[in-house]
Amino acid sequence: MKSSLVSTTVLIISLFPFLKEANPERILAVEFLGSKSHVLTYLPLLEELSRRGHEVTLLSPLMGFTQTGIREIPTVDMGLLTKDLNLNMYEMKEANVDADVFALLTEIAPKHCAALYDRADIQAIMEESFDLVIRQPMFNDCALGLVHKVMQQKKAPLILFTPTSAPSFIVGFTGGHHPPSFVPGVLTGFRDEMTFLERAKNFAAEALMYCVFSYYYLPQMESIYRSKLGNNVPAAREILSTTSIILSNGHFSLSRPKPNLPNVVDIGGIHSRPANPLPKVVSVQL
């Protein structure tokens, strides 16, 4: 039943016009920390699952953007995190200044994530039974404690939905690998046709990211959810290794060549909707 539910979710994406109604299941989508741009990439999938009779619960920072019967539980909006750092993203954009992402993920985000585990509605979710868990994995590893506890209720499978083309540090959890010799990392922005020096820089950037991610960031996230749920909760990599499918919001026509395994499915554009018509009369005040 669980493996068939994973397959059904993928088939819904590629074969919308040909599917009949499926048996209703309970589905949980999790994003503790994020922004509107993240949620909008996978919201159409959840809406279609809801329209087809499935009971969908969404934990996310974005509320009120769907009318399809999805149960919504608010988490932490990115605006609240930047407020704690006293950042004005619009002013920084105008000044061409980047935010300190490292401080955001290691100082501010953990405080809010730990607070979520103390909320009664989040604790209630961990006691409910779900047939499938969908998680946005981009820096939402603090939520893995909740994900693990929910998965244990009915041995529910796990699907990852990346709001960008699936990066190397995500596919690596399920046995994939993007060689830095021709796959540019998220920190460099190189093309796949790199010079020797660019390949060396790309390798160094990927190695640095792996070390920070593995030996500092993930252990910190694990300490948060273990402090709330107990030290018997597995490590982040162990939980993520159980992922059945990675749904990647990318497309081969827009991203560089990547040697992905069959468990990485590109579904770029699923969030696209028909454009609203422009107004026939536009008033302009001078």
Task: Characterize the structure shown.
About 2% of the residues have low confidence. By secondary structure, the chain is of the alpha/beta class. The strands form two sheets. The chain has a seven-stranded parallel β-sheet with strand order 4-3-1-6-7-8-9, sandwiched between helices. A two-stranded parallel ribbon has the order 2-5. It has ten helices and nine strands. Helix 5 packs parallel to helix 9 and helix 6 packs parallel to helix 7. Strand 6, helix 7 and strand 7 form a beta-alpha-beta unit. The chain has a domain of 199 residues: Rossmann fold (3-Layer(aba) Sandwich).
Query: Measured on Cα atoms, how large is the radius of gyration?
Result: 20 Å
CATH class of the domain at 2-11 and 23-179 and 235-266: Alpha Beta
Distinct helical segment count? 10
Strand order of the largest sheet: 4-3-1-6-7-8-9
Strand content: 5-15%
In terms of topology, how is this protein built?
Blueprint: H1 2-14, E1 26-30, E2 33-34, H2 36-51, E3 55-60, E4 71-74, E5 76-77, H3 78-84, H4 89-94, H5 101-117, H6 120-127, E6 132-135, H7 144-154, E7 158-162, H8 168-171, H9 196-229, H10 236-240, E8 243-248, E9 264-266
Parallel strand pairs: 1-3, 1-6, 2-5, 3-4, 6-7, 7-8, 8-9
Helix pairs in contact: 5-9, 6-7
Q: Brief overview, please?
A:
The chain has 286 residues and is α/β, with parallel strands linked by helices. The chain is built from 10 helices and 9 strands.
